[in-house]
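$ run holo --ligand "fe (iii) ion" --emit tokens
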Amino acid sequence: MTRTVLHGASEVFVGPGERIEDGAVAIEDGRIVAVGPSAAVTREHPPENADTALDATGKTLLPGFVDSHTHALFAGDRSDEFAAKLRGKTYGEILAAGGGILRTVRAVREASDEVLLANLLGHLDAMLAHGTTTVEVKSGYGLDAETELRMLDAIARADAAHPIDVVPTFMGAHAVPEGRDADEYAERVAEEQVPAVAEQGIAEFCDAFCEEGVFSVEQSRRVLAAGVEHGLTPKVHAEELSHLGGTKLAASLGAASADHLLHATREDARALAEAGVTAVFLPGTAFGLGAAYADPAPFLEAGATIAVASDFNPNCYARSMGFATTLACVGMGLDPAAAVAAATDGGARALNRDDRGTLREGARADVAVVDAPSHVHVPYVFDTNPVETVLKDGEVAHG
Ligand code: NIG
Ligand code: FE
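-- output --
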């Protein structure tokens, strides 16, 4: 048996609404076996008997971040679009002119399997260093069966090769390929790509970009319903640039999550809450686009579960979940504890994972050790990375 004890922490952020001052966490074989006041935990689990003991005086123990929405597998460089947006071009205009997602599609189709894997592993290293221990990664820069499968294969290989748990989402309905009709392409995704992905057996979720000028509610429904038939749980990019109805679609399908929600209404919030669909907020995207942030208040009032994720992609070059919590506080008005809970427990809920996202007894021992005395420093410190050490399944994976 492998034993680890982290003790003397200024604060243990156990989960939503649960924090312990001068706390400790004991771990056996990758699972948390005790959490509580340091004196009590170390009496039962003496540090001197542990294989690894860490004196966390002055530090905070957090559940590893669960980043539930990323497009972290890509190739190419779109930094010039950042400059174009500053000159007034919109995200939709860039996409309609064959840039944006479609440009990354061309780069991914040209990239070798080795380059794709190496790119993703590099980003995972950066995420781990910032305290992320589980990350969802979407395909969607292939837009044909062959490249979508190649992306999902790279995601599976990265999961096997890296300490971070990588959760695979198929997103053939991420954009309409150049020169194609949206209806016809959505039909191909449903009829051809979804069954091929299911046969390959390496995707868990199916996502669609339900947006004006991309996929309509009906086209998104067609793709996501085909996914459900083939065992893929739906997720929806909903109300990001306009209000189209993706949130209600997510509710009607019993999706795991509806994501973005910048233009969602109070009625949307109620529909999500009633259907038990997690609302995923991606404040980095609003920040990068210079757009108005999503308003979490109607979702919280309706009793919905909320998550905060990075949305790391070429249009939102931010891998740090700590920075996502900063933006969730400053831009969306969440308080620090709610932001940290949304980036950990909320993320786990958006991915249907009940074994992580908290430091409760029985949970996976995925722990970020923050070199600061409380969880408030996670959003408060945004110029450097306050995460010092990261444990994945009880093993030191970083630091
Ligand atoms: O979630 N909105 C669609 N997908 C991504 C952006 C992907 C890209 O621009 O490459 C998002 O923001
Ligand atoms: Fe996205």
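-- notes --
The first helix runs from residue 38 to 44.
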